[in-house]
């Protein structure tokens, strides 16, 4: 019997705001435990919440980035449950009137474009974080009340690999929009995975199992692979699947049962009496729409068509938005954006990683790389000399032409100047000379290398090659 998987994802993303959702406490990672807290985020009696305007704006912006509708009415609900990291014993969220609905994410998958529908992206608050030590446990409430966006897909995902690619695409979109830093090491992105299996061709969904609090995309993929296999084995052996919540043990490579899955009524939702509904005006929504940026997939396609970049190069520039922005800034200064892209990707990126500095701290001007490319194209310097010049301009901030002048690095193209180098190379290497005359063409490259070495890389390789052939055949 053949089965197919049906997967839906609930991705929780911390919004990039200075303060928490309902109070003025700092939204800041790494502070001393329980220092970014106040009566509001600790749920003390009499403390009243005030919505964070920036969080509301970034929620609407996310909706537009994900092709969602942003309704003119949204309200807040209390989701009631007790857990040590939940200081209020309820979580403020949005049940039946969320801030955004009915969108989709498109991404490259399987040689084409995959599409996953987004049911909703609703705004809620994060809870604290529990820590377990050898003989006691503790809770840090610094995270409690941080604005959290829950992005819920429809069950459109058919494989663990598709889930993985969707999550990467979603992360890129949110980073491009400035909505979240999506730093998984800081817990800014977590994911719940809903999985069921059914016989191929069936339209009814199977019994859903939820895997909670996944904190890596590769972990989601591994967990989904295991869980799909587990569910098929249960069915094949005549067992019965139940709706439940499980956790992923990455070390053991298995999922463990935690509890039977709760339904909405188990949380006793009701509208929060302390918060007015959010009614965004058309003017407000229009202002947010103006902040919508070009999405990563569209940018990649544009880089490939407008700048004739290969797919691999376009992917690098799209994956690093700041590097892509820098490329766009400098590419207009040169005649060959493809060569400029090569220098940005292969040289500049490596130097930034090596030195740990940011693009904003570069010493050289935005015209420097196109100018360097132009010097190579015009034959004024060789490619190897260009590498030396790039290292110098990265260190000093000087323009390439200034470095060429100061160091006397102009390429030697005069055949009269180069002939002596060529004759010396021929005289010093009788073996390769004999090989060339016997028809071994690669021997010429060795001789060219000797000339380039003797001229400290300043000789024009094309002129050198022609001269060597002329002398050797003379």
Count of discrete domains: 3
Helical/strand content category: alpha+beta
Radius of gyration: 30 Å
Mean pLDDT: 91
The percent range for strand residues is: 15-25%
Uncertain parts: none
Head-to-tail CA distance between termini: 77 Å
Overall 3D form: elongated
Helix percentage range? 25-40%
Cross-sheet strand order for the largest sheet: 4-5-8-1-9-10-11-12
The main sheet comes to:
8 strands, mixed
Question: SSE order, as H and E?
Answer: EHEEEEEEEHEEHEEEHHHHHHHHHHHH
Helices, by number, come to: 15
Number of strands: 13
Walk me through this protein's architecture:
This protein has three domains: 3-289, no CATH class; 296-407, no CATH class; 415-472, Arc Repressor Mutant, subunit A (Orthogonal Bundle). Helix content is 39%, strand content 19%. The strands form three sheets. An eight-stranded mixed β-sheet has the order 4-5-8-1-9-10-11-12. The protein has a three-stranded antiparallel β-sheet with strand order 3-2-13, with no helix packed on it. Strand 6 (129-132) and strand 7 (137-140) form a beta hairpin. The chain has 15 helices and 13 strands. Helix 5 crosses helix 6 (311-319) and helix 6 packs across helix 7. It has helices spanning 53-65, 160-176, 217-236, 282-289, 296-306, 311-319, 321-331, 337-355, 368-377, 383-396, 400-407, 415-428, 430-437, 442-454, 461-472, and strands at 3-14, 77-80, 90-93, 101-109, 112-125, 129-132, 137-140, 147-153, 189-199, 209-214, 244-249, 254-260, 270-271. The mean pLDDT is 91. It is an alpha+beta fold.
């Amino acid at each position: 019997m053949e089965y197919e998987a049906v997967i839906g994802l609930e991705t929780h993303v911390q919004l990039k705001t200075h303060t928490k959702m309902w109070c003025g406490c700092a939204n800041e990672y790494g502070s001393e435990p329980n220092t970014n807290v106040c009566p509001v985020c600790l749920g003390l009696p009499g403390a009243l919440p005030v919505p964070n305007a920036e969080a509301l704006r970034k929620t609407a912006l996310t909706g537009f980035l994900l092709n969602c509708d942003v309704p003119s009415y949204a309200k807040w609900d209390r989701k009631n449950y007790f857990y040590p990291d939940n200081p209020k014993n309820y979580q403020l969220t949005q049940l039946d009137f969320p801030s955004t609905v009915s969108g989709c994410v498109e991404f490259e998958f399987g040689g084409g474009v995959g599409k996953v529908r987004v049911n909703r992206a609703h705004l809620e608050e994060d809870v604290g974080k529990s820590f377990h030590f050898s003989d006691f446990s503790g809770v840090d409430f610094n995270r409690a009340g941080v604005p959290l966006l829950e992005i819920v897909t429809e069950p459109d995902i058919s494989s663990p690999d598709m889930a993985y690619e969707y999550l990467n695409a979603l992360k890129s979109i949110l980073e491009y929009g400035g909505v979240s830093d999506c730093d998984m090491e800081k817990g800014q992105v977590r994911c719940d995975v809903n999985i069921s299996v059914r016989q191929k061709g069936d339209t009814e969904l199977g019994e859903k199992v939820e895997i909670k609090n996944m904190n890596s995309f590769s972990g989601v993929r591994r967990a989904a692979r295991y869980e799909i296999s587990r569910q098929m084995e249960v069915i094949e052996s005549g067992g019965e699947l139940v709706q439940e919540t499980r956790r992923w043990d990455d070390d053991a490579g298995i999922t463990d049962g935690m509890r039977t899955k709760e339904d909405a009524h188990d949380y006793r939702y009701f509208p929060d009496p302390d918060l007015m509904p959010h009614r965004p005006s058309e003017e407000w929504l229009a202002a947010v729409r103006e902040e919508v940026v070009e999405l990563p997939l569209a940018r990649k396609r544009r880089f490939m068509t407008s700048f004739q970049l290969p797919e691999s190069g376009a992917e690098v520039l799209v994956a690093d938005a700041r590097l892509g922005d820098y490329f766009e800034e400098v590419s207009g200064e040169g005649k060959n954006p493809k060569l400029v892209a090569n220098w940005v990707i292969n040289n500049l990126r490596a130097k930034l990683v090596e030195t740990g500095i940011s693009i904003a701290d570069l010493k050289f001007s935005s015209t420097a790389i196109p100018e360097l490319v132009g010097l190579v194209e015009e034959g004024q310097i060789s490619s190897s000399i260009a590498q030396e010049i790039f290292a110098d301009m990265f260190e000093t901030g000087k323009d390439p032409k200034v470095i060429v002048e100061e160091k006397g690095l102009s390429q030697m193209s005069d055949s009269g100047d180069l002939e002596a180098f060529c004759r010396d190379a021929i005289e010093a290497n009788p073996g390769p000379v004999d090989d060339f005359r016997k028809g071994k063409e690669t021997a010429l490259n060795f001789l060219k290398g000797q000339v380039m070495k003797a001229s400290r890389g300043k000789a024009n390789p094309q002129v050198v090659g022609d001269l060597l052939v002329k002398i050797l055949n003379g």
